[in-house]
Amino acid sequence: MTAPSASTPLAESLAKVRQRLNDALSAAGRPTTDARLLAVSKTKPAALIREAWHLGQREFGENYVQEGLAKQVELADLDDIVWHFIGPLQSNKTRDVAEHFAWVHSVDREKIARRLNDQRPEGLPPLNVCLQVNISAEPSKSGASLAELPELAGAVLEMPQLRLRGLMAIPAPGENMDAQREPFARLKEALRALQDRFPEAPLDTLSMGMTNDLEAAILEEATLVRVGTAIFGERESPR
Ligand SMILES: *Cc1c(COP(=O)(O)O)cnc(C)c1O
């Protein structure tokens, strides 16, 4: 596989997103190393992931377990690729995630955390976990409530095969920058509260911000933005 030339559509869109991220960090007065880019590749073919990898992208997010596993098989030669699971997680899929991903962003209840901990193979480093928060308190959306966080975080911190890294949220769409920042600010405060409560915990991650709101998320101290559309283009059919 030869490295693609710098003029492919993906090379251009990835460069634009990197520029957006750098500009947002500068505008927030933060160093450009302060946040990283997770490329959300759900519904997109393994060949595009490979191309992004050749362009220096290393972290990829998948939402559907079977789809993610199939791509991992195709891309098994890319040894330093880092796979994040970011979709809703049912009990019957925890084993595949525990065995094949480095991160999971969507843990929202103790039962799922317990299964991931029990199923994480001994030979692998602990699974990096973010707790998903239903920050806009939308009925029928995934995520723990803010009130549930201290107990859930305390439980996860007792699980040796999990490493609690932080919080993730997908807020309801905001119409302008102020409206977008508000839920991100609350997630930031929730992470601070956990850091105060569990000072020994490795809580260093705020997973927030997507194609339409990454600037707002960076202003509220996101450390990892999850971008799909702006990198890989529109998805064909939202599943
Ligand atoms: C699809 C998805 C993204 C990426 O969204 P875009 O708007 O395409 O950037 C980010 N996070 C999660 C959890 C997603 O499901």
TrEMBL record:
Which of UniProt's keywords are assigned here?
Pyridoxal phosphate
Q: Which organism is it from?
A: Halomonas tibetensis
Protein name (record): Pyridoxal phosphate homeostasis protein
Q: Which CDD domains does this entry report, sorted A to Z?
A: PLPDE_III_Yggs_like
- Purpose: Pyridoxal 5'-phosphate (PLP)-binding protein, which is involved in PLP homeostasis.
The residues covered by the Alanine racemase N-terminal domain are 14-235
What's one Pfam family here?
Answer: Ala_racemase_N
Q: Which domain of life is it from?
A: Bacteria
Q: Which family does it belong to?
A: Belongs to the pyridoxal phosphate-binding protein YggS/PROSC family.
Signal sequence, start to end: none
InterPro entries cross-referenced by the UniProt entry = Ala_racemase_N, PLP-binding_barrel, PyrdxlP_homeostasis
Q: Which residues carry this modification: N6-(pyridoxal phosphate)lysine?
A: 42
